[in-house]
């Protein structure tokens, strides 16, 4: 284990990234445990208020991100500075993305259906950073050999094609595939060659006069959502807690911190 850590993490200079990712995941988990305990009325934790203003944990998260980011720029690459700044930055990102939906909607939607976006963002961020930590680089240029890397044309072509496929997947309403396609070589091809989602820019433009393609797109989207939406919601509820019902009778969103 020690050899693997030194060979794959410390020697390539990825220790700060590993520390940031670990701090990010642990912070999110701890924040969710605390907020779920407050929601259930258990434990010693209570909401934080200052002068009648409810303090969301995105506030200290932003401060920690600023401190960790500027500290990393100022500390260079030697000593314990980069590692400490990476931990501060990871903790800050964990607090901020835990309330990503609040920032997006500019409203406290933590325990609502819209609040699921926070869990989605945290899971996707952790997955993408993990891929980078494992050696995957944006646009997949890490998979070319030394001789091929010397040929700049091959690298430019690889980056260009991957970027094009990612854009096509994004225009077809497949944002997750497009995002992961930037990291994993040519995974965006899957989203680029398949039918577009019904309300995507591609479908609105190219399926407008093609009723058969439009019908196939709607049918495929229906079957896909029926197959995976329920499972996705169960996983999100397990990670972040189930949102309030339509009436919100279980607990006020303001009483969660």
Automatic annotation (TrEMBL):
The chain crosses the membrane at residues 15-34, 55-74, 80-106, 118-141, 153-170, 177-196. It comes from the Bacteria. Keywords: Membrane, Transmembrane, Transmembrane helix. This is Integral membrane protein. It comes from Streptomyces acidicola.
